[in-house]
Amino acid sequence: MIVRCRLRLLIGLCCLVPTLSGCSDRFLAGPMQYVENDALTKEVKGKNSLAGKPRLQDKVRNALAKLYGEKPDRMIVSEGMGVLLTGGGARLASYQKVGESKLRNLGPDRKPIAGGYGLYRRNCLHCHGVSGAGDGPTAAYLYPIPRDYRKGLFKFTSTPFGARPHRDDLKRTITNGLHGTSMPAFEALMSSDEIEQVIDYVIFLSVRGETELELIELGALSDETDMSALSMDDARQAAESVFNKWKTAQTAIINPPVPAPPSTPKSIHHGRDLFLGRTKEKLDCVGCHGALAQGDGPTFVSQDVFNKVVFGGNPSEKEERLKQFDEKTREVWTQKLDDWGNPVRPANLNRGVYKGGRRPIDLYWRISKGINGANMPPGPNDAAVIWDVVNFVLALPYQPELLTNAPAPPAAQAPAVANR
Amino acid sequence: MRYWSVLFALAAIFSVGAFLYAPFSPDWWLPNPASDYRHVVSTFGREIDSLYLIILIITGVVFIGTQVVLVWESFRFADQKDEAGKPVRPAQYFHGSQRLEVIWTIIPAAILVFIALYQMGTWASIKFRSSAPKVPPLAEITGRQFQWVMRYPGPDGKLNTQDDLFTVNDLHFVKNRTALIYLKSSDVIHSFFLPQMRIKQDAVPGLTIPVWFDADTAGKYDLACAELCGWGHYKMRANVTVHETDEEFRKWLNEKLAEQNQSQLTMATVSQER
Lengths: 420, 274
Known about the structure:
The structure holds two protein chains of two kinds.
Chain A: H1 2-21, H2 38-41, H3 54-68, E1 75-77, E2 95-98, E3 102-105, H4 115-123, H5 125-128, H6 167-176, H7 192-221, H8 232-249, H9 265-275, H10 286-289, H11 303-311, H12 318-322, H13 327-335, H14 360-369, H15 383-395, H16 401-404
Parallel strand pairs in A: 1-2
Antiparallel strand pairs in A: 2-3
Helix pairs in contact in A: 3-7, 3-8, 4-7, 6-7, 7-8, 9-15, 14-15
Chain B: H1 4-21, H2 43-76, H3 98-118, H4 120-127, E1 139-144, E2 147-152, E3 165-168, E4 170-174, E5 179-185, E6 190-194, E7 199-203, E8 209-213, E9 219-225, E10 237-243, H5 246-260, H6 267-272
Parallel strand pairs in B: 1-5, 4-10
Antiparallel strand pairs in B: 1-2, 2-3, 5-8, 6-7, 6-9, 9-10
Helix pairs in contact in B: 1-2
């Protein structure tokens, strides 16, 4: 009897509960909170952290809340940051504080606008996360994983190596997407005005994240008991220095001194020799990209190992999977992580897929100034040399015989592969 | 009891009303250009719409007929009681009527066979590879999570050469010219959907599928993915532009090619910098 009653109750509940609770997603729309940088509260391997310094941690939190607002929907735009954003930050959101006091409601016709904040929430947040840390709910399913803006580093830029990106760089990435990654093209999904608003918010998040990092670095050097450590003035200075990095980058765009020469066999063959490191410039492209430019150079772990570790199961158990390999492999692995601590692969140049764009100028930037945060270093200074490599890279997918039938090197070289 | 029939009648009237109203509302009617929402832009669109309307009329007539009978019967024969409160006529059970069953099997079967035969020509002209137009391909379109990568032949007119033009989510062709594309997928199954041209074709990994369509009105249209392909499925939208003339299309192509071959920033861009 009891069993029957329970069964009935169970069936009843199964019908009742979903009916009464409905399909609401209200539980998802709780108050939005910035996610703190791990280094604020936890020990992070190879990085400074504020673990065990609760007073300094609170100072960082307070400083961030004063400078950028306590929550994503309570935004504060510092005056110093205004010049980086369209309309001094007016397009970030409808309601925000400028400086420290004023509250303003902006938008055409005094109507509330979604602003960069609203558009970001709708289109970007699910991968890039609330604080731009690349930790949104869909991020775990992606490779390469979404960009963490908080370092201020972006890969595909037109500014010098290590510099902050130009607005146009971010615009290109959002408009065209990054081919070969999960970053979609937003040209058909947002108007160019909306894309500008999103760029504003990305810059806002990046500046905020970098200030947080700077403060952690600063705090790591200070003593927990020092009452004057990490004062609000220090925080303002740190923020100011972050703004300045972005401001300098806006005028530091690199323009090739000469246009690309026509893609003649001579130029392509010279590019091939440069790629293979057979010229006086001694470029070491092969070390990473491999002798056939398949992205399998000897300075990286083999594709096989990479696949086993990265794609071999639960993404959070990469470290365990790495342990099955010998010490040498593990060391190479650690050396070749990118600046965000994630595994990267050199590009396979035979596929004709160029993440940062396929225009000659894009490839010029990649080769001449390297790729921020990845293991691609800045290349030679001579524009003519770079253009030959660009011509070679663009021709390779259509002429694989350039490398498969490459003439033997002039002198016998010690095979780098044997050291693997 | 008999007033239940009113409820059934209302439901039927509402459904029929919705279908009668639809042709007078651009939002309710089939996807067509905003300028003239009853004008179907593509050849196949007109054929498919006529098939659609035929089916709609057949099912509409059957629907109205069955609803009238249903409502009338439940109104007419409910609540019939004599002075004593007993039903006038008790319910009778019979084992079935062969004649009725044969009728209601043959009529729908005949309708289905008619539709199946009647649509064959349209299906063949849209889907059979043998009816693919003998024109040079407009582009090769590859679905990938989550965008449409389009590759147009460059100045040499051949696909898969170094001068090809690459665009993302941007389809262009000329009005009154049958556009032939090769559809591919680089990861999962996507579906190439041009609502205004009534074209829908799955993109299947490993297959190269020719798809052809046209439009008789220049303008902007939509391209979407119609197969749930992953978390970013809804982001796979693209712009479709139908050009008025060949020259206009060529001009667009050349502009895009110049952009793709850009090797220096223009003076305008450099001086714009702060």
